[in-house]
Write a structure and sequence with these properties.
One of its GO terms (biological process) is transmembrane transport. It is a multi-pass membrane protein. This is Glucose/mannose transport system permease protein. The protein is an all-alpha fold and 304 residues long. It has one domain: MetI-like (MetI-like fold), CATH 1.10.3720.10.
Length: 304
């Protein structure tokens, strides 16, 4: 760099800071919202998770007592176990089913627009509506069990919502019904960006389509899979309304989830400190998902 370039470089930086000022002014409300509401309230919650807050926030610090009590509570441990089982299975099935649906729709099927609308329609519903719909479907009196028994199979039994061993499977069916369509649409959009020459070359070489998908196409779709994974995982961590509408955590605590534990501790039991501690653990779990994803996605681009 010449001496002239060195003289010009500092003058360019202030211009960048003041360039397009209206766009920066328009972004101020969003920036303030993120700083005050999201970051500020999150820090406030973390700080008060170390206090003896009950009905009202308190400044009496008790160290890690809330966390010790939290991890010694059977209901919280059950909720963590449930979210781990549900999360792993839901994540795998969502990605697999979403990719299969996207691959099938990528074959230029007829009425593709109608199919896209149908598979994406459940995602437009709230989890409350989804929970109520599946509560009717799985109801033993007028749901699947009642319909099959009406056909003459009187011994048929299908009541997963009232069985502790199958209630998570029932929740999984409802969650997949709602969320798989979004994953399929994301992956379908990514599939449409795959170069046609890849398929032509695989056909010329006689490579089966399934091998092309596994060894060539799926690695190309890595960014789309990462985006879908983050969306699914963050949705699983904060799962609440589906649980309330479908099972309300029952039978017993067989379908209890961390988000429901937080709500009950803060509003039903009026124990803010315990709710703050549980919500802080949920925040940590979300950060454990987002930070590696951000490093994986943006760190590699910076190195490149």
């Amino acid at each position: 760099m010449s001496v002239t370039d060195h003289a010009r470089a500092p003058a360019r930086r202030p211009r960048r800071l003041i360039s397009n000022p209206m766009a920066k002014i328009a972004a101020l409300p969003m920036i303030m919202t993120a700083l005050v509401i999201f970051i500020g309230c999150s820090l406030w919650t973390v700080v008060h998770s170390f206090t003896k807050s009950k009905l009202l926030p308190s400044t009496q610090f008790v160290g890690f007592d809330q966390y010790e009590r939290l991890w010694g509570t059977r209901r919280w441990l059950a909720s963590v176990e449930n979210i781990a089982i549900y999360g792993v299975v839901a994540l795998v099935f969502s990605l697999v089913l979403g990719f299969v649906i996207a691959a099938l729709m990528d074959q230029k099927v007829r009425a593709e627009g109608a199919f896209r609308t149908i598979i994406l329609f459940p995602y437009s519903l709230s989890f409350i509506v989804t929970g109520l719909v599946w509560q009717w479907i799985l109801n033993p009196d007028f749901g699947v069990q009642g319909i099959v028994r009406g056909w003459g199979w009187e011994s048929f039994t299908f009541d997963p919502l009232h069985n502790p061993d199958t209630v998570l499977a029932a929740m999984l069916m409802a969650g997949l019904w709602q969320g798989t369509g979004l994953v399929a649409v994301i992956l379908l959009a990514a599939l449409r960006g795959v170069d046609e020459d890849i398929w032509k070359a695989s056909r010329v070489d006689g490579v089966p389509a399934w091998k092309t998908y596994i060894f060539v196409v799926i690695p190309i779709l890595r960014p789309a899979f990462m985006t879908a994974t983050v969306l699914i995982a963050t949705g699983i961590v904060k799962l609440y309304d589906l649980v309330v509408a479908l099972t309300n955590g029952g039978p017993g605590i067989a379908s209890e989830m961390p988000a429901k534990y937080v709500y009950d501790a803060m509003f039903n039991k009026q124990n803010l400190g315990q709710g703050f501690a549980a919500s802080t653990m949920m925040l940590v779990s979300v950060l454990l998902i987002l930070i590696p994803w951000a490093i994986f996605e943006f760190g590699g681009k910076k190195r490149g």
